[in-house]
Design a protein that fits this description.
Shape: globular
Number of helices: 21
Strand order of the largest sheet: 1-2
Strand content: under 5%
Number of domains: 2
Largest sheet: 2 strands, antiparallel
Number of strands: 2
Structural class: mainly alpha
Helix content: 55-70%
């Protein structure tokens, strides 16, 4: 188990970015700074007084922020971003160690290691060791609690799993699934109801943090943000869209679904728990106004469900040609967001004016997030492929055809200068200047 942890820790450290990535993360970190000052109020530059996010992420960041403050005072060294983002490297390695701990009691070592490689480098998990979002932390808390409960430490395991709700409050919706799983395992719904009381500490900490920030015990923290997306649109976007499908960004999920029925024959309760987490997250976020969770690489909201539903892939690893094909595709997709920051293209669309020719009509439209979500020409995968081409010094593929009939190629939608600004390696140990040659 130590080899698994340190092996993935080494891999993820080699590909570590070591810098802040998301605006959400900046707010969570600033809340940690405020707590160290004995306050809950954010820096005025954020334009809001209090963080709207769960306190759990901030509490996890607190040791890194405190240590970086001490190092800055003692040695004049700035280490805040590095120490904070290393949390996600540790989280990435620990999650896969927990998968090994769970599966090694039931399967031979070679199968388990093969699955860990698939999960560790061919799914969305790898890029998110470089991005400071909460969903990977939620996935680890749930799996850690589940593994502890599997090992007979039911109360402490459920407490650990419930901490996911402190990181992201919507994770509290997943706790009834774990209670149902426990009731199935022990064949006693009375004991399951008693176990549910272990949820009170996390719920208490959550509502207390709400009261300290806003003066109300129960608040969503997201005023004006609603579940306004038509359900079928959200389901299509998450599952099948050309720009955000979870299967595009985590191809091994297909193997997990293929292996689920066989996995359920020997691990029925576990299989239904994993499927339940995936389905609950799918239907919950399909109606959210921003179902894709942008800015993000893929659909970040479903990371816990995607990773848990990939575990049953262990049952189909004997299909070597299929597994090899899925692994190659998955690794190539993840490398696009590992070599260059996974948010680079979405931020490029947000801050620059990409325009495309309107088809069969005069005029041009701005390339926006609907194009990114549903048009493969402007998807994140296409965008990062173009950025990688620029990183490697490749030029344009050739003159565009009639744009009014065939559409505007991605390189032609943006100025060369804007592409050059976005083209840079994303490794803490390597900072390269933007190439002189435009990818256009």
């Amino acid at each position: 188990m130590r080899r698994v942890f340190f092996g993935f820790l080494l891999l993820y450290t080699v590909t570590w970015g070591g810098h802040y990535t998301s605006g959400d993360g900046a707010i969570k970190v600033d809340w940690a700074r405020a707590l160290l000052r004995g306050s809950s109020q954010l820096d005025p530059r954020f334009g809001v007084t209090y963080s709207q996010y769960g306190i759990g992420h901030t509490l996890l960041a607190l040791p890194a922020i405190a240590a970086s403050d001490w190092l800055k005072r003692a040695a004049g060294v700035r280490t805040e971003a590095a120490l904070y983002t290393f949390l996600f490297i540790l989280n990435g390695a620990w999650f896969l160690t927990l998968v090994h701990r769970y599966l090694s009691r039931h399967y031979d070592g070679a199968r388990v290691v093969t699955l860990l490689i698939l999960m560790g480098v061919a799914t969305i998990w790898w890029p998110y060791t470089k991005l400071d979002f909460s969903e990977p932390l939620v996935a680890t808390a749930i799996l850690w609690g589940f593994v502890l409960m599997q090992e007979g430490r039911h109360a402490i395991g459920f407490v650990v799993a419930s901490l996911a709700g402190l990181i992201r409050p919507d994770a509290f919706l997943l706790m009834p699934l774990l209670i149902l799983w426990y009731g199935w395992q022990v064949a006693s719904w009375r004991r399951a109801a008693i176990l549910a009381l272990a949820l009170l500490p996390a719920l208490g900490a959550h509502v207390a943090s709400n009261y300290v920030r806003g003066g109300h015990w129960f608040t969503s923290g997201y005023p004006g943000e609603t579940f306004s997306t038509p359900l079928l649109v959200g389901l299509y976007g998450i599952l099948l869209s050309a720009g955000k499908s979870v299967f595009l960004f985590s191809p091994p999920l297909l193997l997990g679904i293929l292996g689920w029925r066989r996995f359920a024959k020997t691990h029925a309760a576990d299989a239904y728990l994993f499927a339940g987490v995936f389905v609950v997250e799918l239907f919950f976020f399909a109606r959210w106004w921003d179902w894709s969770g942008d800015d993000a690489w893929g659909v970040r909201f479903l990371i816990p469900g995607v990773m848990l539903m990939t575990i049953p892939a262990i049952e189909v690893l004997e299909r070597r040609a299929l597994v090899a094909g899925v692994a190659v595709v998955g690794i190539c997709v993840q490398l696009l967001a590992v070599m260059i920051s996974g948010l680079e293209y979405t931020l490029l669309i947000r801050r620059e004016r990409l325009t495309r020719q309107v088809l069969f009509a005069p005029g041009r439209n701005r390339v926006d997030f609907e194009d990114l979500r549903f048009n493969p020409r402007y998807s994140q995968i296409a965008g990062h492929l173009q950025l990688i081409r620029g990183l490697l010094g490749a030029g344009d593929r050739g003159p565009a055809s009639d744009e009014s009939r065939s559409g505007t190629p991605l390189p032609a939608a943006l100025s060369g200068a804007a592409w050059r600004d976005a083209v840079k390696w994303d490794f803490i140990w390597l900072r390269s200047p933007s190439p002189q040659k435009s990818p256009q």
